[in-house]
Design brief:
Strand content: under 5%
Number of helices: 5
Number of strands: 0
Distance between the termini: 63 Å
Shape: flat
Structural class: mainly alpha
Radius of gyration: 20 Å
Largest sheet: none
Length: 154
């Protein structure tokens, strides 16, 4: 069997691997029921859907011809490392600086990974995403995520 699109082939393999990994990891948690889902319900379903999507993309890569085999280009290491570092940094500083400070910091640092960074656009994104995150996670779901930095709340 010939790979007709390298890009789609490796994307499909990655989606399947990540989906199966999440679905398998979710089996360690309680599933609950459809009316009252447990902590494993959503990650399992999402993992299965991701694996199915990966299988569809993989099937496409093996059946539909693409021009020139659609080769994989060079990996953009700088943006990749900036975004991974920003997300990891967010996880480290969230308990100390709270959502109000750490989420905009994450957004500004991650925005610098792109070729067209604009302070105003990043600021608007930071405000909107912080407000919606507060509404969803703290107000809506009642999660115990620190909102303000420790030096303010004591």
């Amino acid at each position: 069997m010939k790979i007709k699109s390298q890009r789609d082939f490796w994307s499909g393999v990655m989606f399947i691997a990540v989906g199966v990994g999440f679905a398998w990891g979710a089996t360690n948690y309680s599933f609950g029921a459809a009316a009252r889902p447990g902590p494993g319900y959503f990650p399992f379903g999402l993992g299965v859907l991701l694996a199915i999507l990966g299988a569809i993309v993989l099937f496409k890569a093996l059946t539909i011809e693409s021009e020139g085999g659609d080769p994989i280009g060079n990996i953009a290491w700088k943006p990749l490392s900036i975004i991974v570092g920003a997300v990891a940094g967010f996880g480290v500083i969230l308990p100390h600086l709270g959502m109000v400070a750490s989420l905009p910091l994450l957004i500004f640092v991650a925005a610098t990974a792109g070729d067209e960074f604009h302070w105003v656009e990043a600021g608007i994104n930071a405000v909107v995403l912080t407000v919606f995150s507060w509404l969803i996670f703290i107000k809506g779901l009642s999660l115990t995520i620190p909102l303000w930095p420790k030096f303010i709340t004591g």
